[in-house]
Design a protein that fits this description.
Elements (H helix, E strand, L loop, with lengths): L1 H4 L9 H29 L2 H11 E6 L6 E2 L5 E13 L1 H6 L6 H10 L4 H8 L7 E7 L1 H10 L4 E10 L7 H4 L1 E2 L5 E3 H5 L1 H5 L3 E7 L5 E8 L7 E2 L4 H17 L4 E8 L5 E7 L18 H4 L1 E2 L6 H10 L8 E3 L4 E4 L2 E4 L6 E3 H6 L3 H11 L1 H10 L26 H8 L6 E2 H12 L3 E2 L14 E2 L3 H17 L13 E10 L5 E13 L6 E8 L8 H19 L22
Parallel strand pairs: 2-10
Antiparallel strand pairs: 1-8, 2-3, 3-4, 3-5, 6-7, 8-9, 11-12, 11-23, 13-18, 14-17, 15-16, 19-20, 21-22, 22-23
Length: about 575
C-alpha cells in the first residue's frame, strides 16, 4: 500500500512540448502585434492617420460675397446677391429609383426650358456624385424645385452678380462670368481686389455624424469695395442723350466723356451701342468695346485751340494779332488748303470762331513742326491719360524727322494724328484748369491728384475766351446752354479707308468747357459715322453737349454765370409766378 502511494506520477507524452509551443506562439503573436503597432505609430503613421481623417474629418468653406462697385455717392453699380443653384447626386437618384417618376422629371425639365431626355442624361450615371442641373435660378424656380421633392436633387446657395444700372455703366464696370470671375472692365482689372478670400472650418465627426471636435477655423478675408468717380446721375444723363443722338443721326456709334476740371475725375463715360450685363442672351462682342478709350480718330478742328495756344506759348503771336487769310486758300507743294470762303483778315479769336484752315495753317507754318508737336504732346496726345483702364489706346502722334509744308498744315487742323475721346477731354481739361496737366482717374478722390503746369495760365485763359466766341457766335451755336457761358470747338473729319485715302464716312466731334467764369466740367462728344446730311460737329455733336451740360450743371448745383441769357422767374405763392 505504502509502496503504491509513493509511486512517481508520470506526465503524458508531449505535454511539455505543447506548453513551449504555446508560449512561443503567444510570444510570437505578441511580438508581431507590438512590431505592427510600432510600425503604425512610429515608423509610418501618416498613411493610416490620413485614412482615419478621411473617415472623420470634415471641412466647410466660409464663402464671401464679391465686393460691390459703387459710384461717388455710394449708389450701387455692381452688387452680389444670393441665389439658388440646382444640383443632383446621380448615385442617390439611382438608389431611390427616382428616374422612374417621369412626371416630376418632365416638370423639372420644363422649369429649366430644356428637353427631358437631355436632363435625364445628366444624371443617369450612378458613379457620379455631383452634377449641376441649373446654375443660379430665380427664387420662384428654386421654390418649385423644392416642391417637386425629387430624391437626389438639391439646392445650394451661390451668389450672382447684379448690375442695377444695366447698360448705362456697362463699359466702365464690365461683367463677370457665371462663376463670379471678372471678364470685362473694372470687374476684370480689379478681380482679385473684389474677390477676397473665403474662410475655412475644419472639424471631426463621429460615426453618427455628430461634431466631436473643432480642429481649426480660418477667418474669411472680406473683399474690398470699389468707389468710382462716376456720378450715376450724370452717367445716366449722358448715356440717354448720347443714345438718342446716335439713333437720330443714324450713326454707327458714339461716345461721351464728362470730366471734373479740378480733380481729373471722370464723372461719366458712356458709349452707344451698349449692352446689358444682366442679360447675356444677345451679348455681342462689338457692343462690349469701351470706344471712349479704345477707338481713336483724327480730331479735326478740335485741335485748332491748341495751335493758337502753341503760338501764344512760343511768342509767335499775341491774343490781339490779326492773320490775313486772303484769298481764302493756300497752295503748298501742289496741294490746296482752303476755307469755305475768303474771310480776309481775321483775329485769332475769329480764326477759331470761323474755324479757318488757312488761318491755323499760317500759324503752324510760322511755328514750325517741333513746337506744335510739343504742344500736342504736352496736351496728352500720344500717351495714356493715367486712367489705367483695360484696352486704353494712346492714339497716334508721329515723331518722324521730315514733314512737308502740307503735312504740317493738315496737322494744324487735325489730320495726320489720332486721339481717343478721353485724350481729347484731357487736353481740354488742361486748358480749363489754367494749364495744369494731371492724370485722369476713374476712382473718387478726396483731394486733386498732383498736377504739372505745362502751359501759361494767361495763355490758356485767352484761348478759353476765344473758344467762348465759337459757341456764342461761331460754328457751335447749338452747344449753347441757357444761363451759362460755354467755351468749345467743333470738329468734323473724314475717315480713312483701309485701302488708303479718305472715304465718305465722317466723325462729328465737339469738345467744350462749362462754365467759362469758373470751369467745372469738360465734356467731349463723338458721333461716329452719322448717316444723315447733318454730319458736322456743330449739328450732330454740339446739341448732345448742350443737353448733357444743362443737366450736369443742375445736378452739380453750379450757379448760372450768364443770367442775362435766360429769363429767371421768382417763385410766388399759391402757384403764381
Amino acid at each position: 500500500m505504502v509502496m503504491a502511494k509513493r509511486k512517481k506520477r508520470t506526465e503524458p507524452a508531449g505535454t511539455r512540448w505543447r506548453f513551449y509551443t504555446a508560449v512561443i506562439v503567444l510570444f510570437g503573436v505578441f511580438t508581431v502585434l507590438v512590431a505592427r503597432a510600432a510600425y503604425i505609430q512610429v515608423i509610418s503613421p501618416d498613411r493610416f492617420s490620413l485614412q482615419g481623417d478621411m473617415r472623420s474629418l470634415r471641412s466647410d468653406s466660409l464663402p464671401v460675397q464679391r465686393g460691390s462697385i459703387v459710384d461717388r455717392h455710394g449708389r450701387e453699380l455692381a452688387v452680389s446677391v444670393p441665389v439658388e443653384t440646382v444640383w443632383a447626386d446621380p448615385k442617390r437618384i439611382d438608389e431611390h429609383n427616382a428616374l422612374a417618376d417621369s412626371r416630376r422629371w418632365q416638370a423639372l425639365a420644363e422649369t429649366f426650358r430644356m428637353n427631358r431626355e437631355a436632363l435625364v442624361e445628366k444624371v443617369d450615371d450612378p458613379s457620379k456624385r455631383f452634377v449641376y442641373l441649373q446654375r443660379k435660378v430665380t427664387p420662384s424656380e428654386a421654390d418649385y424645385v423644392k416642391q417637386l421633392n425629387i430624391p437626389g436633387v438639391y439646392l445650394k446657395t451661390e451668389s450672382r452678380r447684379y448690375y442695377p444700372t444695366g447698360e448705362i455703366a456697362a463699359h466702365v464696370v464690365g461683367l463677370t462670368n457665371i462663376d463670379g470671375e471678372g471678364q470685362e472692365g473694372l470687374e476684370l482689372l480689379y478681380d482679385e481686389h473684389l474677390t477676397g478670400q473665403p474662410g475655412k472650418r475644419v472639424y471631426r465627426k463621429d460615426a453618427q455624424g455628430r461634431v466631436v471636435e473643432e480642429i481649426s477655423q480660418t477667418e474669411a478675408q472680406q473683399p474690398k469695395q470699389l468707389t468710382l468717380s462716376i456720378d450715376q446721375r450724370i452717367q445716366a444723363t449722358a448715356y440717354t442723350e448720347l443714345k438718342k443722338a446716335v439713333r437720330y443721326n443714324q450713326a454707327t456709334s458714339g461716345s461721351a466723356i464728362v470730366l471734373d476740371v479740378d480733380t481729373g475725375e471722370i464723372l461719366a463715360m458712356v458709349n452707344s451701342p451698349s449692352f446689358n450685363p444682366n442679360n447675356r442672351a444677345d451679348l455681342q462682342s462689338y457692343k462690349m468695346r469701351n470706344r471712349a478709350i479704345t477707338d481713336s480718330y483724327e480730331p479735326g478742328s478740335t485741335v485748332k485751340p491748341l495751335v493758337v495756344l502753341s503760338a501764344l506759348e512760343n511768342g509767335r503771336h499775341k491774343a490781339g494779332d490779326v492773320i490775313d487769310t486772303s484769298p481764302g486758300w493756300l497752295r503748298l507743294g501742289g496741294r490746296r488748303v482752303s476755307d469755305p470762303r475768303n474771310r480776309g483778315e481775321l483775329t485769332l479769336t475769329e480764326v477759331l470762331k470761323h474755324s479757318s484752315n488757312v488761318g491755323v495753317t499760317k500759324m503752324a507754318l510760322d511755328l514750325g513742326v517741333d513746337p506744335l508737336l510739343q504742344t500736342y504732346a504736352d496736351a496728352g496726345f500720344g500717351s495714356d491719360t493715367g486712367v489705367a483702364l483695360l484696352g486704353e489706346g494712346m492714339g497716334l502722334l508721329s515723331d518722324r524727322r521730315r514733314w512737308s509744308e502740307f503735312e504740317l498744315a493738315t496737322l494744324s487742323y487735325g489730320y495726320g494724328l489720332s486721339v481717343t475721346t478721353l485724350q481729347l477731354a484731357k487736353a481740354y481739361s488742361i486748358i480749363a484748369s489754367g494749364g495744369i496737366k494731371r492724370p485722369l482717374t476713374i476712382f473718387r478722390q478726396e483731394s486733386p491728384l498732383p498736377g504739372e503746369q505745362v502751359f501759361n495760365p494767361d495763355n490758356t485763359r485767352a484761348v478759353l475766351h476765344m473758344m467762348e466766341e465759337v459757341v456764342s457766335d461761331g460754328t457751335a451755336k447749338q452747344a449753347q446752354v441757357p444761363g451759362y457761358r460755354i467755351a468749345g470747338k467743333t470738329g468734323t473729319t473724314r475717315k480713312t479707308k483701309a485701302t488708303g485715302g479718305y472715304g465718305d464716312e465722317y466723325v462729328a466731334l465737339f469738345a467744350g468747357i462749362a462754365p467759362v467764369s469758373n470751369p467745372e466740367v469738360v465734356v467731349v462728344v463723338t458721333i461716329n459715322e452719322p448717316g444723315t446730311d447733318d454730319y458736322y460737329g456743330g449739328t450732330a455733336a454740339a446739341p448732345v453737349f448742350s443737353s448733357i451740360v444743362a443737366q450736369t450743371m443742375r445736378l452739380l448745383n453750379v450757379p448760372p454765370d450768364n443770367p442775362n441769357d435766360t429769363e429767371i422767374r421768382a417763385a410766388g405763392f399759391g402757384g403764381q409766378q
